[in-house]
Amino acid sequence: MNNPLPPPLFPSEIAGAEFFQRVRDTAFKGTQVYEESFQCVCNKALDFLEAWEDARVDRSKLSAVILDIDGTVLDDRKSTRIGDQKLMSAHLPMRHVYNKILEDGHVVFFVSSRYRKWETATKQTLGLHGFSTYERLCLFPDEWPRNAYLIWAWKDEMREAIAKEYHILACIGDQQCDVAGSNIGERQFKLPEPPAYDC
Ligand SMILES: [Mg+2]
Prior knowledge:
alpha/beta
């Protein structure tokens, strides 16, 4: 071979251990920023619920808040061991929001892109973390391929169906498709997306 390729260099050989320490520090700071931003959005949601006054002329529809599940009420990053089961942890600031929604007499809809085949496990996890009162748990059809466009279209469709029977007060989620589109209610609360850990 006339021009053999040079042996591959590993990133640590190029950047050195100091660089990797900096990456780890930044990732840690990233989680702190994430927790703080998460709390901040939840505080805003609590303030909104506290200040909300029903100024609707037609009050025949119940008011509803639509919540996403993963990265919203459940923490994608952590799991808890309960007995011999490993379960995703809950986002505690969101539990306060959830409790406030119910205390104020609104109803909750969970709209999640988890597949329907996970319905039983999802109900169990939600129940174990205190999210057991909701009007409906809407899960993504098993036969649909999982892509961002379809998830967006399906979430829109779910909200449209909910809006026929309920007044959508707010939508809360960590993805853009949870808080943008049609029938997104009076206010939207976009939570930060969980930081990546594998750096
Ligand atoms: Mg999510």
